[in-house]
Amino acid sequence: MIKKRYKVCVLLAAYNCEKWIEEQVKTIFKQRGVKIYLYISLDLSSDNSFVVIQNLKKIYKNINLIYSKKRFGNAAQNFFYLLKFVNFKKYDFISLSDQDDIWFDCKIINSIKCLIRYKCSGYASNVLAYRNSKIISLINKSQKQKKYDYFFEGGGPGCTFVLPREVAEDIQTNIKDNRNLVKKMLFHDWYIYFFIRCRHERWFIDKKPSMLYRQHASNELGANIGLKSYYKRIKFIFSGNLFKQIELLCKCCMKRISNKCKKNLLNKKKSIFFFIWNFAEFRRKRKDQFIFLLLIIFLFLTKRI
């Protein structure tokens, strides 16, 4: 039973958000049983986002607006900026938020209960894809975690992530120590999951959805469903960007990766056999495991890796 009213720092990376952010902020401050402190980093925008957020600050006193007047270029770098510069010392937990979703009012307190109950270093949950006031589908990321899944997939939707303060501070230190590598990263949520799992710490993916994940034309990533999404992912893999990102993650977290992984990953020939031999440990879904195996074999035969 949780009796303490925890202080929760919510990090929100925003860009051209005037249409959606007011509804999202309302649901953030409606969270039950916790004290919310919201940090919004506004990427250089072309709409009235700045004015909208300033008006929200008049309503909610615990909003801190960070407006650097520079263009980050993507949400990941905006989140890395927040993770690097916000002081976490006075908070109990750190949460990530997108600018356009709708949180259930028990989202944060339920995540804290799970982190404490299961003694985990990170939390994520399933979400409900939502468009035009209608629920489209459940986005299920809560399959059983595999030994090496963090090399090829994240720990669930990044907008559901909640971390204990001590873990967030470790992540902050690592980002500062590897700032040149982090600048090249495209996925902040994958980095967080990778960092925690390669330290052999526990991560919890909740089967119970914690929010409505809004789908619209301006989504940077969206729900990863449909043919268009599959095409984007295939293009990303064949461009070589996937393995470049994995290399960056490994370099950032090299001190924490097991010696067995290091030996196999640092040698290209060994890494291929390592992937093939352990193919069932790199993806959580059974279907994805066999797709991964075929993909690795194809990339090897065509000399793309």
Keywords, separated by commas or semicolons:
Spore Coat Polysaccharide Biosynthesis Protein SpsA, Chain A; five-stranded mixed β-sheet; 11 strands; four-stranded mixed β-sheet
Net shape: globular
Distance between the termini: 51 Å
In CATH, the architecture of the largest domain is: Alpha-Beta Complex
Let me know the CATH homologous superfamily of the largest domain. Spore Coat Polysaccharide Biosynthesis Protein SpsA, Chain A
pLDDT < 50 stretches:
none
Roughly what fraction of the amino acids lie in strands? Answer: 15-25%
Order of helices and strands: EHEHEHEEHEEEEHHHEEHHHHH
Strand order of the largest sheet: 3-2-1-4-9
How many H/I helical runs?
12
**Fold-level CATH name of the largest domain:** Spore Coat Polysaccharide Biosynthesis Protein SpsA, Chain A
Q: How would a textbook summarize the main sheet?
A: 5 strands, mixed
From the helix content, strand content and strand pairing, which structural class follows? alpha/beta
* Tally of individual domains: 2
Helix percent reads 40-55%
Number of strands: 11
Q: Radius of gyration over alpha carbons?
A: 19 Å
- Could you tell me the mean pLDDT? 91
CATH domain class of the largest domain: Alpha Beta
Characterise this structure.
There is one protein chain. By secondary structure, the protein is of the alpha/beta class. The protein has 2 domains: 7-214, Spore Coat Polysaccharide Biosynthesis Protein SpsA, Chain A; 258-305, no CATH class. It has 12 helices and 11 strands. Strands 3-2-1-4-9 form a 5-stranded mixed β-sheet, with helices on both faces. Strands 5-11-7-8 form a 4-stranded mixed β-sheet. A two-stranded parallel ribbon has the order 6-10. Helix 3 (75-85) crosses helix 5. The longest helix is centred in the last third of the chain and has 16 residues, at 286-301. It is globular, with a radius of gyration of 19 Å.
